[in-house]
Every structure is written in C-alpha cells, then in structure tokens.
Amino acid sequence: MTLIATDFQPLRSRILVNGIVQGVGFRPFVFNLAEECGLTGFVANSSNGVEIEIEGDGDSIAKFHRCLNTQAPPLAVLVKIEKADIPPQFESTFKIISSKRTHSAATLISPDVAVCPNCLSELFDPTDRRFQYPFINCTNCGPRYTIIEAIPYDRPFTSMRHFKMCPECQQEYDDPRNRRFHAQPNACPTCGPKIWLVNGDNKPVAGEALDLALELIESGNILAVRGLGGFHLVVDATNQDAVMRLRERKHREAKPLAVMFPSLEAITREVQINATESALLTSFIAPIVLCKKLLVATIADAVAPHHSRLGVMLPYTPLHHLLLSHFGKPLVMTSANLSEEPICITNPEALTRLNGIADYFLLHDRDIYLRNDDSVMIHLAGKNRMIRRSRGFVPRPIFLPASGPSVLAVGGELKNTVCLTRQNQAFLSPYIGDMENLETYHSFEQTISHLQRVLEVKPELIIHDLHPDYLATQWAMKQGIPTLAVQHHHAHLAAAMAENCLTEPVIGVILDGTGFGTDGNIWGGEILVGDASAFSRFGHLENMLLPGGNAAIRAPWRTAVAYLRQSFDTKLPQLDILRNWEIGPILEMVSSRTNSPYTSSMGRLFDAISALAGGPGEIRYEGEAAIALMQACTDLNVPPFTFGIRSQESVKILCVKPLIRDVAHAILDGADFTMISNRFHRTLVNWLVKILELARRSTGINQIVLSGGVFQNEILLEALIPRLQSKNFEVFAHELVPTNDGGLALGQALIGQKYLEKMRLKQKG
Length: 765
What we know:
CATH topology of the largest domain: Nucleotidyltransferase, domain 5
Helix content: 25-40%
Structural class: alpha/beta
Low-confidence stretches: 1-5
Strand order of the largest sheet: 7-14-8-9-13-10-12-11-15-16
Shape: globular
Number of helices: 23
Largest sheet: 10 strands, mixed
Number of strands: 30
C-alpha cells in the first residue's frame, strides 16, 4: 500500500503562568525551551503573570508542558498554570515580545535575593568587566521588591530607570540566551550605580571608597553602609571598644547585635551549626540565623552580652562580599537607626538621622523604594522558625485555605507588619517595627501605600487591633473604609490557622505579654477555642494586678512585688527583692488598686518569677527578664512547683498565687536562679498539658495551635510539643510567619475575610 502525505495541521496552546515568574529568568527559560522543542509562538510578561502561546505538533507541545513544570529557574515559583487550545497562527519563529499591561495585577513579585554563584565568580575575576563591581546581578539574583514601584516588573517601573544601559549591558539585556536577559537591575561600572564615601558633614573623602571604608573600620570607626533594603551600621565585631561605642550612640544597651562573617567556615568557629542552619545561611534568602555560641570565641563580648545565641549571617550583596573578603574578620551589621526607629533608606535621611552615630557613610545612588530589614530565623523543635520576616521572603504570599475578599490588616503596636489579601493570597509586609514614634508611623504609611500600588489592590475592609489607643488603630479609623476591631489573641490563633491551612475549630494556646481583652483587662495567658469566625475563652492565667500598667513592663521588680503582695497578703516573705527596691508605693498601689489593671499575661508571670529569683529588676529591651530566665534553664527533670486549675463560672483559671508562694519558699530554702528556672519551666509544661487535656475532654477538639511571643522560648516550645504529641494531640506552631506580633496581621486578615463573607451571606439571606 502506498501512503499519501497530507498537509500537517499544527496545534496551538495558550498558557498563563501565575506566580513568581517576572525578573527571575522565566521568559528566556521559556524561549530556550520552545526552541528546544521546535515550537513557534511568543512569551510576554503581563500584569497577570507570564503569557505564552506555543504552536507545533502534539508531542512537542506535551514535552513543553512537562518541562515547564519541572525545569523552571531556581527563583521561579509557579502557583497556577492555565491552558487553553486556540487556532494555529502558522508562525515561523518563537519570540519574546514586549510586556502586556492589563487592568489586573495577579502576578507575584520576587523577593530580594542574595548574589548568585555565577555573579560572585565574575565579581572576583580580574579579567571580567564587572570585577569588584558592587552592583553585579543577573536574573538569578539581586534586588527585586525594594526597587520596584509598579508592575509589570520592567526597568521603567524600577529605580534602575535612572541608569541608561551602555551598549554591552544592553546587548546582554536583549539576548534571550544570556542570563542577564531582561535582568532589570543589569548594570556595570560604566553605566550603573556607584559607591562613594563621605564623613559626617557629607564631605567626600578622597580615595577609593572601598579601601578607605576598610581602613576606617579597622581603625575602630563606625560606618553607615547603604545596602539592599536600607542602611547597616558596621563595626569590627572583634573590637570591644568599637562595639561599646556603637551601643552607646545607638542607645542599644544590651540587645544582641547581628554579625556578618566572611564564610561559613568562619561562622563554625564561633557558633554551633547543624545541617539545617547551614542550608539556611547559604540559601539565596541569606537570613540572620540565631545559633548557639561556642565556649571559645573571638567575637567581642559586647556583641551579644549574657546571651547563649549569636545572630549570624553571610554576605548577600556584592558590596558585602567585597567588604568581608578584604576585611577577613566578622563585622557587626545592625540596622541603621536609633533604637525603636525604622531603618534608614535614603542618603539624606541617613546623613541626618545617623549624625552622631556613624563616623563615616558608604553611600550609593540606586534608590531604595521600601525598607526591608534582614530576616531573622531560628531552628527549634525540628523546624525553621521565623523571628522577623522581611528580606528574602517579602512579598512572597502566604496561601490561605480559601479565596476571599481583599482586606487590609494593620497589625498591632509592637513588631508591626501589615497584610493585604488578594483572593487566597496574603501579602505580609516587611517588618516595620514598634509603633512608638513618628518615623515608624510614616514608614507604616509608606509600606501600606507601596503594597497597595504594586499589588493594585483596594481593600474592602481594614482590620485593626481591639486596643483603641494603638497608632495603627487610629490610622485605620481615618481612612474612610469600613473597619473591624479584632481581639489580639484571636488574631494570633487565626494567624496559626492561616499558615497551617486549618479550617476547623482548634484549641489555641496563646501566650504573650500584652493584649487588650474583650473584658477590658490585659490578656496574655490564654486558652482559646475557635476559628477565624469566632472564639471563646476556655481558660486563662489568674488575673493579677499590674502596678503602673505599662510601667511594670520595664520594671519586672514591680510585677514581682505586686504578685508577692497578692499571693501572701500582708505577711510578705523576707526575699532580697523586697530589700533592694522602694516597695512601699507599689504595695500601696496594689492594696488600693490604684493605676493597677488586671492582667492574665504569661509574659508578666515570666517577669515576676525572673525578678523574684534574682534576674533583672529593670530591663533594657523587651523580654530581657524572660530571656534571662529561659537561658538559666538546664534541666527539666526536676520537681514542679505547686500549680492549680480551678473553675470560675464556665472558664478554667490557671492559679498563679500558689505558684508564687511555692517559688518564694524555694528561694528562702536556698534554690538558686537556675533551679527556680528549671522548676518553673517544668511547671509550665505540666500546667499547659493538664488544661489542654481538660479542653479536649470538653470540646472534642484534638488540634492545638501555639502562638504568641512567649513561644520564642526554646525551652518551652521544645518541651511542650513532644509532650502534647505523646498525648496524641495534633500540634501546629509557626514556621512561615513569626509567632510574635510580627505575624498578627495575617490572623487579622483571615478574620476580616471571614467577617465579610458572613456579612454577604446575611445580606443574601
């Protein structure tokens, strides 16, 4: 039989890819894949993601679809792929065409990431035209979120629009086979940003900026160095005098400072590193990782005084690599600000706000559009846990259990972040800070404005904390958009549910320092039952009077004296703390209940136990007394203190007074700070396991979520989770967002979505 050839009829497929697919080398990947498969068509960025049309035979199209999923560039995150068959166009080539801008903005933006190995190799290659160029980058690395003003992620919408590419850079940018194809920050020494050095009076210092900076650091000077998401204050981490001078000028008396090391090997000489921590440090995220110190170290004692862990990181920008490779020793790299103020990002701002802190300024002229502090992580209970979620993660979304309306959550007062939702995506902002000054408030406003602009989302509802005096609450009330007040600890519960994609009611163990309760008291030691729609208070720590309210937070001795007075009535035990402080006014405040609100705070209980046992009576940063108590703990194989659980109406009360009495007697019997810490942590674990068993028996719920700043306590977290699992509980703790108030906005956002959905159902009904 003779076969007669027929005309070939090609197939054509339209593909829309949504996710992190712009600025990560995705289009050249598609271009080369299409050529490899022998397909024609085009690929283009759009506000919806990346649009692809491919044309050819069925087998080649099928191969293209398979490889699209399995061979995407390392920074690409493919969230959704939509496909449709369309009529063939009979084209002869495959092209990358200009971006298509539409009314929608469904695409995702890549976070700022560390410089890649290929660029590093070029950076230190004397024959390369970018040798020692501090802004080297390609599609696999470099700035993203901090330089983007709008989408799609094209150069005219970034701070690189001020730099016209030279012919060589333009050729790379236009070549789909080059790894710098459409790398928006692409530049070189001829056409790109530059660094220079000035003194505190903004007078240029003659000479090569990098060499001069290194000499000044070696001499003990403090430098302000403009980086990727803001400025760092930099000193020699082995120079005790320089570190102490930095602390004095920055008004940061004792809180630990982060240290950047030249290499992973250098880090291992100062701290213990496991495989997971090593992988984190060397990843393209390059966060600060809190690692346990070694006994013998060269880092100055003033870097992290009285702390068992050190915050370590590796260079993540080309400038960092140049500084560290030439200096050869670790450098303190701490946020460039006065304590509690936002990090500086512009040159004029740094020269003004850091005047008197930094001796010299290493500046550059690539604008930073949004502050983006270093992310901070810790490996606890077998998981990587977030302490501060910022550079390397933002604006990658948290995916919610279901789609919902767009809402804006404005977080709390401390460790503020905001969250904007789009369908099932929750975009948590970079770390903003404590809302205690005008500078942070302005940063808060700028962050919200930037987030709404780059996502092109207008919220239907603003969710804020129940506390009426928070600056974020007051801002929300002025926006002319419907608002919803959410109880602080309910938001913590919902945040843990959101990141773990839980939809059914859970039991929440929410432990922190302060949260405005629905009864007008200060909450903080809560056992809640509920979901994002509603909650009830199953149990809480016994209410205790807090003399002076917020004043007691900075003075744990006040809390300790007040708790003693309430636990022993008028016959106080003869403890050292009663002789070391002027206790008369505190006793009077408690007995008369003057300016002494009730609190169920676990954070304040930690403060009281710590101060009673000999810990700090006054603190210099948040949580210092509690951290001292945690670090003293060495062994949980000890007898617990007395604790009780009683019923008050329908709520279980974890009795604090018997515990305080037991602790006082133990101190009188000679128990030292370590023994008190050991027994207290053991008591706390037993206490929580007991009340959670009661909650399960009452509700039938077996899923537990843990949230709140107290769960940054490594002793508690690592002891409680296995104990609960041994009782056959399902336990969920934070990994993707901080357990502290840095994750609060995520929970607020989920609650807001559920609230709007409920309102719409009511209207339909």
